Amino acid sequence: MATTMLQAPSRASTSSSSSFVPVSRQNTMSSHDGTRSMRQSKRYSVTALYLSMSAKEKDLEIEDDLAKAQKILRELKSKISSQSKKNFVLEKDVRYLDSRIALLIQNRMALEEREEVASHLEDASDIQEGAFPNDEKTQKYGNLLFLLQSEPRHIAHLCRLVSMAEIDSLLQTVMFTIYGNQYESREEHLLLTMFQSVLTFQFDNTPEYSSLLRANTPVSRMMTTYTRRGPGQSYLKVVLQERINHVVQMKDLDLEINPLKVYEKMVKDYETVHGELPANMPRSVTAEEAAQNRSVQIVIEPRLNALMDIGNLFLDTIIAGLEEVPYGIRWICKQIRSLSRRKYPDAQDQTICTLIGGFFFLRFINPAIVTPRSYMLIEDLPGDNPRRTLTYIAKMLQNLANKPSYAKEPYMVKLQPFIHMNKDRINKFMLDLCEVQDFYESLEMDNYVALSKRDLDLSITLNEIYGMHTLLEKHNNELSRVDSGHLAVLLHELGPAPAQLPRKENRAVTLPLFSKWESQLDDLTAALDITQDEIFFMEAKSTFVVIIRSLPPNTSVTRRPLRLDRIAEAAATTKNDSVMVKKGIRSLELLHQLQDMGVIDKDDGYATLRDEIEQELVHLGSMREKVLEETGKLNEVFSTIRDHNQYLVSQLETYKSYLHNVRSQAEGKSRKQQKHQVLGPYKFTHAQLEREGVIQKSNVPENRRANIFFNFTSPLPGTFVISLHYKGRNRGLLELDLKLDDLLEMQKDNQEDLDLEYVQFNVTKVLNLLNRRFARKKGW
To answer: Where does the record place the Ras-GAP domain (predicted)?
Structure first.
């Protein structure tokens, strides 16, 4: 197989299909300890190969608690990978529509543009399953996608060639489809190999040190997108969510330190209380004059200390969470360090740490702190004060991780003590991030395993296939100039790329992946430098572990020290279980074969084999708690991702209805000509709206809330009337006339409060409620 391999420390990986693979090899690459011997490492590799090759014929399912927990964890990881892709697609649509809806609201969009935006969403429901329309093309595209997946340098080269307008669709296919199984070692390692190629090019072709990894390019967008995958989201939730929510809850804590803003607020507050301003308090001053004002300095001084205290708490949390950082993110940090040392051999660690910080903090940590709602870490937008505090914390961390720059905001220099106090430990943390093992040998084994299984496939949409083909075709000349080999042959055979299908015709297909140039894997034992006795040894070990896990616990036959011959005989004579009998007979045969080869000795109770089996069983005994702990964490992540998905779907539905309404009005029909059905009223109690989060603040006394209810009516598309009523009274206490345009503009401007005098509504939750109750086929 034509996969570029790099030599690195040995660390073999076992296949996820193995039922007894150690957890350090099944989980996301978070524990690359490399503590096992070379001999054991090689044997684990052979175990992976043996088990994977027999996966289709696997005739014994283990049903102990560990196996059940592992199965649940595997299914959960698959769901997170799938849901992450759906959210990425929805977020892309929402980003597109956010900008276009703003133009609609401000009446700056031509009729044909409105039609284009509306058509962008037509039939944008979940994509249906289907089959590839052409058998011959199925094989050719299977060859192409296998090549792209197994030889990451092609995608790495393409990522450097595409424009910012093309990068989102490419990232969708690469991050969430070609390497979409976010918790499977082979795909993750191949994706990281692709990153290595991209980063190497970036370092080799960026002349200015200060520009490395900082410009907004397709490569930087790719690195940011990588951090948004399941493992990155899990880290943010586990490590940062509680700390961020603590700040968000301090709604009244004003830590503004910009002297000009502090002065302006002082002027506003004085006018509110006293009316006219005194002579020594001019309404307008320069930033420099505000900074010199003694009253402003007195206000700012304690705020600086408070900000540094909060910054230290964030930093403590981040440093303590080192082991929670996903392996892939740590490995990228390691490549940045390695490439920096190669390009700048005289650079000190402190200089290198600024580049690592440029990725870890600028692309990963700080965006989540500044916009926690976008990262699903909080439910609602933070208030003005918490939002400003979080922005300051992010700036402080960025200045700490990079060389501080106060040119635009000289007042930030007052926080310099935070930098001096923490510079050494942040540098140590960033260097510690890089201390992870490499994976090159395990990737080589995973690729052999993948070839041997013969059942590689990819769930991908037709438009993703055609979109990738289009990009490759567009940049074929440049791609071929560097590598005129297999990729050029496959593109020539495929011919012109098909056009994108309408959304309603797009289908998700399962594409078999295989290499056009390797129909079989010859002499695996020679390729892996292993012997027949090693294969027999690991087959025996895996067989005995499977048998012991399948036997009832605490029986005489499973007592320690293990008597392997008795275990084999017990399995071979099992009643009413032909599978166990077959395993028992095979284990007896293996004991005899290994005895004849001189690998084990019956006189010492087959000690060499027995000891490794017992070590594996001890390891498995401690695995279940780790699996359950990881499952608990990932369940929270999955729940958050699903909630975010529902929010995105609701947002798109809101946009759809609004666009339908705009189109209807653009057709020139007056309201008198249109026959609109009045929808509603829909009745909601105070308690219902409070429970759903629509009411976020209420001035209604507790003892009267049970008698309060609200009627929601839609007399015309895009128009709503909310009236507040008290039981027993004929007329409502108040009535509010709302326009959908106004609500959307409030949301766009991050105005979350809708004031109804007696209660405050949450704008987003109101939109969601209106969407559920009043969505019409042709608009609201």
So the answer is: 186-402
Residues 6+ apart with CB under 8 A from 412: 257, 395, 399, 404, 406
Q: Which of 25-29, 486-490, 526-530, 742-746 has the highest mean pLDDT?
A: 486-490
Residue 519 Cα distances to 1, 452, 514, angstroms: 10, 10, 8
Count of positions (residues) in the chain: 780
The domain 1-60+228-456 belongs to what CATH superfamily? GTPase Activation - p120gap; domain 1 (1.10.506.10)
Can you give the pLDDT at residue 524?
Answer: 47
Number of Cβ atoms within 10 Å of the Cβ of 196: 20
| Higher pLDDT, residue 310 or 84 | 310
Q: Are 507 and 128 in contact (CB under 8 A)?
A: yes
Closest CA to 80 of 510, 460, 462, 645: 645
Identify whether the C-beta of residue 303 lies closer than 8 Å to the C-beta of residue 257: yes
pLDDT of residue 333: 93
Tokens matching residue 379: 């439910």
Distance of alpha carbon 114 from alpha carbon 296, whole angstroms:
49
The C-alpha atoms of residue 514 and residue 450 are separated, in whole angstroms, by 10
Helix (H), strand (E) at residue 710 = strand 708-716
Show the CA angle centred on residue 588, arms to residues 582 and 592, nearest 5°.
145
Asked whether the beta carbons of 677 and 699 are under 8 A apart, the reply is: no
Which residue stretches of 54-163 are H helix?
Answer: 65-105, 111-121, 135-150, 153-161
The structure tokens listed for 617 are 């069983």
In contact, 740 and 658? CB cutoff 8 Å: yes
With both helix axes pointing from N to C terminus, report the angle between 218-227 and 153-161 in degrees, rounded to the nearest 10.
120
Q: How far apart are CA 418 and CA 401, in angstroms?
A: 12
**pLDDT greater than 80 at residue 331:** yes
Q: How far apart are the first and last CA of the chain?
A: 57
* 3-class DSSP state of 58: coil
pLDDT in tens, 701-717: 888 899 999 999 888 77
Please provide the DSSP assignment of 307-340 as one string: HHHHHHHHHHHHHHTGGGS-HHHHHHHHHHHHHH
Rounded to an integer, the average pLDDT of 601-624 is 84
pLDDT tens per residue, range 237-257:
999 999 999 999 998 999 999
Mean pLDDT of the chain: 79
Task: Please say whether the beta carbons of 337 and 205 come within 8 A.
Answer: no
pLDDT at site 6: 29
DSSP 535-582: HHHHHHHHHHHHHHHHSPTT-GGGPSSP-HHHHHHHHHT-TT-HHHHH
- Measured in whole angstroms, the distance separating CA 107 from the mean position of its chain's CA atoms is 36
What are the domain boundaries of the chain?
1-60+228-456, 524-619, 669-774
Of 715, 665, 716, which is closest to residue 118 (Cα–Cα)? Answer: 665
| pLDDT > 90? residue 668 | no
Contact (Cβ atoms closer than 8 angstroms) between residue 574 and residue 567: no
